[in-house]
Specification:
It is found in: Cytoplasm. The chain has 4 helices and 2 strands. With 79 residues, the protein is of the alpha+beta class. It has a two-stranded antiparallel sheet with strand order 1-2. The longest helix is centred in the N-terminal third of the chain and has 16 residues. The protein is globular, with a radius of gyration of 13 Å.
Length: 79
């Protein structure tokens, strides 16, 4: 499922389920491209620097704020 092009209200509804799981003590792992989803995460892992044969490294790990401070991270620049 891709979240590209979803309205913020749809994203908020989408987050209700994982938020309930986390509140119940479960862990949730999501693969997301939507910055609103990424910003709501407790912990982010950013692979890169690009896709395919240009990837294969971990560019940033941490909270969204910590990832935003990594200039080499494409995701971090937009956070």
């Amino acid at each position: 499922m891709t979240n590209r092009g979803r309205h913020i209200a749809d994203i908020e509804r989408l987050l209700e389920c994982p938020n309930r799981l986390v509140e119940s003590g479960h862990s949730v792992i999501m693969i997301a491209r939507n910055l609103d989803l990424i910003k709501s995460a407790d912990h982010v892992i950013v692979p890169g620097p690009d896709g395919g044969h240009k990837g294969g490294r971990i560019m940033a790990i941490g909270t969204p704020k910590e990832v935003a401070a990594v200039p080499e991270s494409h995701t971090g620049r937009f956070l």
